[in-house]
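User: Predict the structure for this protein chain, please.
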Amino acid sequence: MSNRDTLCFLGGIMVAALIGGAVRMHQDSQRSGVEITVGRGGPSIQER
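Assistant: Here is the predicted structure, written as structure tokens:
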């Protein structure tokens, strides 16, 4: 693999990671409803 190929490969990985992070943030911002968790203090219900 040449130096240019390696640079292009790393650039592609960085772009893919950036797109994946943006999609995940968008999905988290669209999520609404109720979140139920069980911890040491017992069950907890939070509205999103």
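The chain has one domain: 3-47.
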